[in-house]
């Protein structure tokens, strides 16, 4: 009888191990089936969404880096531009490289003119730098940000340099003459 005890114990241990493994597999299948997840996004949709998060300049610079084979620099640029995580940035740059997207400007919402009447002060100083040849000008102000500076550049590039200079003086502590000199460097 003693000769049968050891084989029976081994058989019971093996049976318990098989039952535990079966329960684990059944639980995983139940977890997958219980929470129906959204279909995985296609690389094309990831590329479209990634391109929509970039400004025109960032879009151009990102594709220049991709064309030069500088994937790490492209991921870093996307990471810094969007603030997404590294993995999401890597996936977005990979999708953009595999499925190139043209730049599409976001729907422009006309800004009311009285928006610039009272400049808002920001908790940081914004630096705008313009240069042409050996001449460089810098404007530093806590009343400027990317949006306001973008509007000033758009005014300057469209030929309305006087309105651009006035807007720059309104959002900084420089004179109209200094603003005109700065705007003159933006015509490129």
Describe this structure in words.
By secondary structure, this protein is mainly α. Among the domains are: 43-98, no CATH class; 113-184, no CATH class. It has eight helices and two strands; from the N terminus they run αααααββααα. A two-stranded antiparallel sheet has the order 1-2. Helix 2 packs across helix 5 (86-98), helix 4 crosses helix 5 and helix 7 crosses helix 8 (176-184). The relative contact order is 0.08.
Q: Short description, anyone?
A:
With 188 residues, the protein is mainly alpha-helical. It is 59% helix and 7% strand.
List the topology elements.
Blueprint: H1 2-34, H2 43-52, H3 56-67, H4 71-82, H5 86-98, E1 126-132, E2 135-141, H6 146-157, H7 161-170, H8 176-184
Helix pairs in contact: 2-5, 3-4, 4-5, 6-7, 7-8
Features of this protein?
188 residues; two-stranded antiparallel sheet; 8 helices; 59% helix; elongated
Mean pLDDT metric: 83
- Order of strands, main sheet, comes to 1-2
The number of strands is 2
- Alpha carbon gyration radius: 30 Å
